[in-house]
Amino acid sequence: MAGPIYFGPFEVTSQVFLTTPHSFALVNLKPLLPGHILICPRKPHRRLTDLAAAELTDLFQAVQRVQRMLARHYFASSPHGDGKDAPADGTPEAGSFNIAIQDGVEAGQTVSHVHVHVIPRIRGATAKEGPGSGDQIYESMAAEEGNVGGALWDRELKKHRQQLGDRPEPGGSFPSIEEVERHPRTAEEMNAEANMFRGVLEQMGEPDDGADQ
Q1: In this structure, what DSSP letter does residue 203 have?
Q2: What pLDDT digit, counting tens, does each position of 134-143 carry?
Q3: Among residues 2, 46, 90, 196, which is most buried (max CB within 10 A)?
């Protein structure tokens, strides 16, 4: 991983656990649920439509790689049905995911750098409650608890206040995850999670494609 990596104006190198030729994946300062990570293009594109074809392909291939990694870690003992058609432990089919992009300020984007939210939903633990439409995760994403830019801004306030300007505000609420009290994590906690995910990728034989970029 050559040189510092930035998510918008924020330096996040220690939070990054995967780099590819055009993308990187990082652990979240304020995860909505365990395993909530972000995947971004290396170039600080503001909108999804700004990405070139190669960048877009690379971004969503990275999303798939991270899904498989998260499934191996979080779905290894996920309860599921019996029988020959039951999904194997540790596969994406043994659980579910929320994949989301807040593309623009009006959609709730608080860091002006395209980022894909990948959130594993563990059967019997963090899965959506009950059948039907609506999922609290989207409301949480649009509220202060999902304010990624605000949390990073708070962390960097003393060092970069003049550079960053006003603190981002959440927005772009969706019609109605479980409400839990969440606080920004420490650098040590995020470093430990990033190292854990790097270890899972190594076990899977998934090299860091962007290490020499």
Answers
A1: H
A2: 567 766 766 7
A3: 90
